[in-house]
What we know:
The chain has helices spanning about 5-40, 55-65, 70-80, 100-110, 120-130, 135-155, 160-175, 180-185, 200-215, 225-250, 260-265, 275-305, 305-315, 325-330, 335-345, and strands at about 45, 85-90, 90-95, 115, 355. Among the domains are: about 40-115, no CATH class; about 145-305, no CATH class. The strands form two sheets. A three-stranded mixed β-sheet has the order 1-2-3. It has about 350 residues and is mainly alpha-helical. One of its GO terms (molecular function) is monooxygenase activity. It comes from Trematosphaeria pertusa.
Amino acid sequence: MDVGPFCLVPSVxxxxxxxxxxxxxxxxxxxxxxxxxKHECHPPLAYPQRGPLGLSEIRESTKAFHARTFLxxxxxxxxxxxxxxxxxxxxxxxxxxxxxxxxxAVLGTNFHHYGIGWRKKYAFKPLFGNSLFQxxxxxxxRSRAALKAAFNHARVTExxxxxxxxxxxxxxxxxxxxxxxxxxxxxxxxxxxxxAEEGFLEAMKRAGAGCEKRWQLGLFSLLVPQESFHSDxxxxxxxxxxxxxxxxxxxxxxxxxxxxxxxxxxxxxxxDWNQLRDEACVLxxxxxxxxxxxxxxxxxxxxxxxxxxxRLRMEIEPLGGQSPSPKDLKQLKYHGYCVREALRLLPVLxxxxxxxx
Length: 357
Ligand code: HEM
């Protein structure tokens, strides 16, 4: 029977793919052995795995996540297994570390030897596209340079925009003794008051959580229905697209006195509509939740330590109630220490990941 060329393709693939897999395994093994010899590395302690896929660890971490004890659970793992240990997660080997030297190597000295990793890129692609958070290597260098220029332009030292959101919240905290102000923290500017897109904040929260879930499951997420995740992403994109359209429409406005926000500054470096939309999504996630969480953590900690509060107040007394200038801020050393201590005690982003490339 003549089966034609259609049978030939799978046969060739069947021969070539295992051959390619074996070759790349040998190559990885050789280069890893070379590195291990060169740096005299010792194998990390192995997490006591129960079951082949690391399901016990997934179960425990998910339980801790829902019980809001994830940070404590993570710290307890390091107390149990040491500063660096390895585990296997859905067949992928993960090395967990809080060893300062290792972190310095991954995020600093050997930065270009580590990438985002396919699992994270795949998980966040629908929401973040090809924005900065999704890039590594030379593409990251290029994109980072453009963003840095935009940051410099955006006069990030101007606090007016942040104060507009935070001051009413602090006023409420001062005058009301209930927990309601905490519930009102969602910044006014991000609420749906302009009718741009109904339910944007909720959709953003669900879309972010959906990406995390896809990250956890890796390719297994293909087996899980994701219609609602994709419709949340589409809703978020519609909101951001409206902002990009506004920014591009006013790009020709050369009124020098107008304060440019970050997106407007970025639009001076690129007019790629998709890129602007993706970067806007990233910046929303990177800036809004982190800053809000840090502020809440500081308020919580200062409430616990009245002597710290008294010292903070003493330090700003010379300003006589005026907002500090960027130059004043540099002099407010004790304020800076408190921000760092709050980040250390209650880290806003307690973990991060990279894949050896
Ligand atoms: C308490 C506040 C913040 C914390 C703790 C924080 C933390 C972090 C961390 C850990 C990363 C590295 C992520 C990674 O490499 O995987 C990061 C990246 C980033 N953050 Fe923040 N962030 C904060 C506030 C902000 C704000 C206010 C903005 C924007 C106005 C911002 C914009 C960015 C951007 C653009 C990146 C990507 C930078 C890059 O890849 O080089 N962040 N942030």
